[in-house]
Amino acid sequence: MSTRTLRYYEEIGLLRPSSYTAGGERRYAGSDLEGLGRILELRDVLGMNLDEIREFLDSEQHLDELRNAYRANKGLSSTSAKARRRSILEEALTLNEGLAKQLDAKLERMREFRDRLLSQASRCRELLDELG
C-alpha cells in the first residue's frame, strides 16, 4: 500500500496512526494494521467504496460500544438495568440486521454480474461449437 493511500485514508478519517515521530512520520501499531486489514477486506473482498466502508466501520464501532454498555449493565438486576439491556440489544439487533442487508444487496449485485458473465461465456461456447 502506498504512503499516499495511507495519508488519504487518514485525511478522510478511515485510519489514524497511533503516533507520529518527532519528524512527523506516522507510526502504526498492531491494532492500526488490523484496522487497515479490515478496510482492505471491505474494499477488496466485498467491493465497498470508501463511503460504504466508513459507514460499515462506524456501525461496527457502535456495536462495540453497545457490547461494552451491555456488559456494564449485565450484573445489575434492577428494572431500569433490564430495560437498558433490552434497549441495547434492540439497537444492536437493528444495526446487525442493517449491516446484513447491506451485504445482501452487494452480494446480489455480485451474483447478477457473475450470471451475466456466465451467460456470455455460454454464448461464446455455443458460437465455438457452431464453428466446429
Characterize the structure shown.
This protein is mainly α. It has a domain at 1-45: Orthogonal Bundle (Multidrug-efflux Transporter Regulator, Chain: A, Domain 2), CATH 1.10.1660. 78% of the residues lie in helices and 3% in strands. The protein contains four helices and two strands, in the order αββααα. It has a two-stranded antiparallel ribbon with strand order 1-2. α3 packs antiparallel against α4. The longest helix is centred in the C-terminal third of the chain and has 53 residues, at 79-131.
Rg, rounded, reads 22 Å
Mean pLDDT: 93
CATH topology term of the domain at 1-45:
Multidrug-efflux Transporter Regulator, Chain: A, Domain 2
Low-confidence stretches: none
Write the H/E string, N to C: HEEHHH
Shape: flat
Count the DSSP helices: 4
Derived structural class: mainly alpha
Give the CA-CA distance, first to last residue.
Answer: 47 Å
Number of E-type strands: 2
User: Looking across the biggest beta sheet, what order are the strands in?
Assistant: 1-2
Main CATH class of the domain at 1-45? Mainly Alpha
- Percent in helix: over 70%
Beta-strand content estimate: under 5%
- CATH architectural group of the domain at 1-45: Orthogonal Bundle
Main beta sheet: 2 strands, antiparallel
